[in-house]
Design goal:
Number of helices: 3
Shape: elongated
Helix content: over 70%
Number of strands: 0
Order of helices and strands: HHH
Radius of gyration: 14 Å
Largest sheet: none
């Protein structure tokens, strides 16, 4: 991997994390769930909607995505 590309990838990951971490806390507080469950719900929503986790996290923080829109994850086994 090229050094510049590696640096850009790391910077992108850090920017995403900066958005995702507060969103986990916001969703946890609003929905009355654990931070781990909040992350799982955001990740699942991103996967099902074809979006990026950072985009979902930003929507949670800004309030454009309500905790009611993020369904609890159920075990399908």
């Amino acid at each position: 991997m090229q050094p510049g590309r590696s640096r850009r990838t790391a910077q992108s990951a850090l920017r995403s994390r900066i958005v995702i971490e507060p969103a986990k806390g916001v969703l946890s507080a609003r929905a009355g769930i654990s931070v781990g469950e909040a992350f799982t719900r955001m990740r699942t929503h991103a996967r099902h909607s074809g979006g990026q986790l950072a985009t979902v996290a930003e929507a949670v923080v800004t309030g454009t995505l309500d905790h009611g829109d993020l369904e609890p994850v159920t075990d399908s086994s």
